[in-house]
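Please predict the structure of the following assembly.
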Amino acid sequence: MALAAAIRIDFVDNKSKTSFTKIRIPNGFSISQYIEFGQAMCQVIANISTCRITGASATFSIGLGGLSLKTVADILADTAQKGYFSFASGITGFFKRLRIPTFDETKTNETSDTIDETDVAVAAFVAAMENGIVVTGGTIQPSTERDQTIVSLSDTREVFRRKR
Amino acid sequence: MAIAFAVVYTFEDDSGDTATASIHVPTTFSLSQYTEFARSMADFIDNMVHGIITGVDLTVAIDISALTGNPVTPFADVEEIGAFKFITADNRPVMVNIPGIGESQVLAGSDDLSIVDAGIAAFITAMESGIAVTGGTIQPCDVDEDDIVDTVFAREQFRASGKRR
């Protein structure tokens, strides 16, 4: 049975404290239908809450069944150890930065914290981020948070961050 | 400028600790296309990490700029919630807590919310009967997609902020 999708609605009160609520909804509809539902539900809830609704989103769980992914974490796996990638977009000054947890240290350059871009797995990931992935009927090209298409890799590093 | 959708990967390490990483994608594709993308990208990422990918979610931002009557009021408090308990067709409970419920919606001398209040009644109707969208009706449900069919209670409660779902 598929995990139901969810609408999350965020609130802020008069003292700037924040909270959220979630409403589960079934799979099987289109993104535009979910957005329509979310907007209507936000209005219904805005009518009964004294707080301000500051944001809303719909979340869909994507199944990983059938893929050949690892099923057991290596003994060296640590979520605090991350592979940092910074990608430049087509607009100067706008980047997509991401940190991939449990990054494999053998994919960094010796005596350096930079990531080995010639490593086959790293190169494949970077190519997918720069050129997109072909899907049925098109190609999905990763972007910045503001929907500016990624064009090139600008920086990579191995970094350590607190666990979260 | 649109807010891009996000494909969010969750990782787990050897100690059972979890962490996430997000890849943003444009807003013009279908759910099935995003699913294809997310699964392919999972393969690429899996080859670079020691941990395991335990889940992938697509998060779609919803534009709320057209909301009306959405100011914060002087007495607004996220710790003052409307606690709604619904049941599904298979009698499974579903709790929905709405932060910032107003005192005017609470029945005098009790903690019950007034189900004849127009706003409360509209919310309960939306939860029990769904909301009509172009081409269909979306009916709220539980995590296993079992439809909500009835309301058990609606009452005022107080909870520490940032902890409701």
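Helices of chain A lie at 31-46, 120-131. Chain A touches chain B through 105 residues (CB under 8 Å).
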